[in-house]
Design brief:
This protein has helices at about 45-50, 100, 145, 150-160, 180-190, 200-210, 240-245, 265-270, 285-300, 310-320; strands at about 1-5, 15-20, 30-40, 65-75, 85-90, 90-95, 115, 125-130, 135, 170-175, 195, 215, 225-230, 245-255, 275-280, 305-310, 325-330. It is an alpha/beta fold and about 325 residues long. Bound molecules: zinc ion (2 copies). Belongs to the zinc-containing alcohol dehydrogenase family.
């Protein structure tokens, strides 16, 4: 099979990925072999390629928004059959026994492993996944439209939960890429008022099209105080900006896995009146299943830009340069 590997983590302009030919993986006990049909391009893939995240598996194949078809089944797997549609996402494995797992916070498991970081992911013709962490997918949605839901969508949904937004609340979204535009659709369907704050003009247009109430610059003040806000842009200097935009009791959730340094905060204007700053770490499988159900019910649709699998490096470059709104998706055309 053909697969992309991160040979030399570094700036994407210097082409850190190589497209190699290698044998297709063999599913281990408890695993599925998945023929990749489409794989979304997530900002985390860019962090893996550029070395912002430490190397966990040298020469790893990135990609953790995989829509595919079961092509092989390892020992001890039940409930899956060859030809079933399957989704592969970021959370790949947990121990199931630690203090976090047993209280339902498997996203915090210290032994957790991640697709496309600890193990080879979906920038390839085939990948494997532990069957217990594979998602069933709705039949009605096509491969490309479904792929971004598997990380961008699920993480955006967990970030929304982390804001504890009250019913009918006012939500601010800082940055409006793949994750935010899916999160916005869920929040709007649930009756929130959504304000988007982003430097990217094309994304502001998309935000208004989707039904958001306003779309301004990243450092602008929203037109009204916010009950909740989510920081999707990986820019730590937006943390105090977003905290100042919160109403009393408001919550800011930082959605990214990587954030530049947060400047010193002013207690009076940025934290007092019980404002809260929260991070978002990965997701639980329950978040994933719940989001995929809601997405089907609300008709959540990703705005997608397909690229052939062979052009993964160009897709990452375009993501970094902000050359598209919504989400890039690699299509296995091999
Ligand atoms: Zn655990
Ligand atoms: Zn991701």
């Amino acid at each position: 099979m053909r697969a992309w590997v991160v040979d030399r983590p570094g700036p994407v302009e210097r082409e850190p990925l190589t497209f190699v030919e290698r044998p297709a993986p063999v599913p281990g006990p408890g695993e599925l072999l998945v023929h990749v049909r489409a794989c979304g391009v997530c900002r985390t893939d860019l962090h893996v390629a550029e070395g912002d995240l430490p190397v966990r598996r040298p020469g790893v194949t990135p990609g953790h928004e995989v829509v595919g078809v079961v092509a092989g089944i390892g020992g001890g797997v039940s409930g899956w059959a060859s030809g079933d549609r399957a989704g592969v996402a970021w959370l790949r494995r947990t121990d199931g026994t630690c203090r976090y797992c047993v209280r339902g916070a498997e996203n915090l498991c210290p032994a957790s492993e991640y697709t496309g970081w600890d193990a080879d992911g979906g920038y390839a013709e085939y990948t494997t996944v532990p069957a217990a962490f594979a998602y069933r997918l709705p039949e009605a949605v096509d491969d490309v439209a479904l792929a971004p839901l598997l990380c961008a969508g699920i993480i955006g949904y967990r970030a929304l939960l982390r804001t504890s937004l009250p019913p009918g609340g006012r939500l601010g979204l800082y940055g409006f890429g793949g994750s935010a535009h899916l999160c916005a659709q869920v929040a709007l369907a649930q009756g929130a008022t959504v304000h988007v704050l982003t430097r990217d003009e094309a994304s502001r247009g998309l935000a208004l099209q989707l039904g958001c109430s306003s779309a301004g610059g990243a450092y602008d003040a929203p037109p009204e105080p916010l009950d909740g806000a989510i920081l999707f842009a990986p820019a730590g200097d937006l943390v105090p900006v977003a905290l100042r935009a919160l109403d009393r009791g408001g919550v800011l959730a930082v959605a990214g896995i990587h954030l530049s340094d947060v400047p010193a905060l002013r207690y009076e204007s940025e934290l007092f009146y019980e404002k809260e700053l929260r991070s978002v770490t990965s997701n639980t499988r329950e978040n994933g299943r719940e989001f995929l159900d809601l997405a089907a019910r609300y008709g959540v649709r990703a705005t997608t830009h397909p690229y052939p699998l062979s052009e993964a490096q160009r897709a990452l470059g375009d993501l970094k340069a902000g050359r598209f709104d919504g989400a890039a998706v690699l299509v296995n055309d091999l």
